[in-house]
Amino acid sequence: MNKRTRLVILLAVLAICFVFLWPSISWYANTPKEVQALALGSTENIKDYATVQAAEDVRNFKALVASTPDAELPAEYSWVSKEAAKEYKLAGKKAPSPMTVKDAVKAFDSEAAFMDIFQSRYRDSILKAKKRYENSVKLGLDLSGGMNIIVRADLDAALESQGDTVATENADAFKKEAMANALENLTSRIDRFGLTSPVVRQQGEDRIYIEIPGAAQADAINTLIMGKGVLNFRLTDMDATTAFNTYYAQHPATTFNAAGELMDPSIIPEDCEVMGEYTKDEYGLDERTGYVVVKKEIALDGQHVKSADVRNDEFSSQLQVCFTLDTEGAEIFAAFTGDHVGEYLAIVSDNKIKSNARIQSAITGGQVALTGAFSVDEANNIKKVLQTAWLNVPLSVESQQVIGASLGDEAIHQGIMAILLGLGLILVFMLVFYKSSGINAVVAQILNLYIMFAVLSAFNYTLTLSSIAGMILTIGMAVDANVIVFERIKEELRAGKSRKAAIAAGFDNAFWAIMDSNITTFIAAIFLSQLGTGAIQGFAVSLAIGVCSSVFTALFVSRLIFDFSSDVMKTKKVSIGWGIK
C-alpha cells in the first residue's frame, strides 16, 4: 500500500471519528446546562415545557400588538417574520415590507396556529439536544451521580392473591405476565416523575434493576416505586368537552397557567375536571392527544377489575379489550351503565385518560368488552392499564446505593487527571529516550485516545470509572507497541542499514510480535465483556476498543509519519535514541 493511499485512509478514519464524536462535543461543550436538564426529561415534560413557554410568548406578543400595532418586529422576533412570510405565500398574498407586529399576527388563521410556531421552536430545539445526548458518550452513575436500586417482586404473593382463579399449570405464565406488568408500571412511574434517562430492566426471575442518573431524593423514589397506580372509571361530559375544546382552540395561551391549572375554572361545570387523553407514541411513552372533561365523582374503582385480555369479536373480527369485575364491582357497574346508556365512560389511570368509550347498553354479569377501531398496540396498551389494578405484585427494595453528584465530579476530575498524568509521563519518557522519534509516539497516543472516544460515542457506550481504568491501561499497552518498533529499527540501524531500509525492516519484524500480544489481550477482553457484568464489563469494553486503536496507530499511523519524514522532508538519519547515528 503506497503512502498516498495510507494518508487517504488515515484522513477518512479521522473524519469518520469526528462525525461520531461531534454529538458528544456538542452535548458536553456547546449545550447549556438548562437545555441539558430539559432534554434529559421525558417527552411529555418537553411537550409541557414547550406549551407553557409558547403560551407566555404569545401573551407577550399580543401585549406588544395591543400597545404598538404598527411597530416593526423587534430583533428577537426576526424569525417570526420569516414564518409569517411563509404563511402569506401559502395564502397567495405578498408579505408586507417592512412587517409590523400586527402584520405578523394577521398572517395566521388562528391564535392556535400562531402559538404553534413558538411551540415548535422550543420543541425542536430541545429534541435536537436530546438527539445529541442519545448519540453521545453517557456518564455512568459513578461519574454523574444518582441512585442504584434493586427491587424484589414477590410473585408468589401475587399468585396467592388470585386464589383459585389461576390454575396450577398456568402459574408460570401468570408470574411471567405479572413480572412484565411490574416492569411496565415502574418504567411508566419513574419516567412520569421526570427523572433523567432511567434504566429499568429485569434481573433474574423476580428482581428489577433500576438505575437513575442525576440528583434524586431517596424518599421520593421509594414512594414512587412502592406506590400503586390509581385506576378508576368516570363519566365523560361530552357537551362540556366540546365546549372546552372550542374555547381552548381560540385561547390556547390563556387556558392553563404554568402549573397546568385552568386560569378560568368557570369554563367547565363545577362537578367536572379537565384531564388529558393519552396514547403511546412511537417511543412507548405517553403522549397527550387532546383534553376530555370528566365528572369528579368516580363511577367504579379499579380494584374491582379481576382480569383483562385482548380478543377478536366473533362477529366483526375487530379487536376487543375484555375485562372481568368481581361480584361487588359487577353490581355497581350494572346499575351505573343502566342509568347512563348512550353516554361515554372514561378509563382514568394516574389522572390520565387512556380510553373514552360509549356505553351501548347496561352491562351486567361483570363481563365488559371495550370495542372500537383499536390497533393491536392500542388494545394492548388499554389491557396494560387495566392490569395495573388487578396484578398486585408486592415490591420491596433489597438494596439502594446513592451516589452524590459531588462524588461524580470528583471521580471525573481524578479520572481525567490520571489519564493526562499517565499520558504526559509516558510521552516525556518517549521524547527523552527516543528523541525525535518519540514525537511519533506522542501523535499515536493522542490519536489513540481520539479514536477510543469516537468509538465509545458511535456505539453510545456509558463511560464509568472502570472504563477510564481500561483507557489508562491501554495507554501503557499502546506505547509498548511503539517501543517494540523503535527497538527493532535501532537494531537494523546498528547493522548498518539506511534510514528507509531500517524503518521498513523494523516495522516488518515487529509486526507479529505486536499482533500476537494484542490479539491475546483482545480475546481476553472479549470474554470479559461477554461474561462479566458491571464494572468488569466496562473495563473490558474500553480495553478491547483501546487494543484495536493502539494497533492501528502504532503500525499504521507511526509508519506513515516515518515515511513522510523520509520521502517528503528528505530526512537522511533517524533520531531514535542516544548513541544511534
Describe the structure.
The chain has 581 residues and is of the alpha+beta class. The protein is 57% helix and 16% strand. It is built from 18 helices and 15 strands. The chain has helices at 3-30, 33-39, 43-67, 78-90, 101-106, 111-134, 141-144, 155-160, 171-192, 218-226, 238-250, 327-339, 376-390, 405-434, 438-458, 465-494, 499-531, 535-567; strands at residues 138-139, 146-153, 199-203, 207-213, 231-236, 272-280, 286-295, 300-301, 305-312, 319-325, 344-349, 352-358, 367-371, 395-403, 462-463. It has a 4-stranded antiparallel β-sheet. The chain has a 4-stranded antiparallel β-sheet with strand order 8-5-11-12. Strands 9-10-13 form a 3-stranded antiparallel β-sheet. A hairpin with a 6-residue loop joins β9 (305-312) and β10. α15 crosses α18. The mean pLDDT is 81.
Task: Offer a few descriptive terms.
single chain, 581 residues, alpha+beta, four-stranded antiparallel sheet, 18 helices, 15 strands, flat
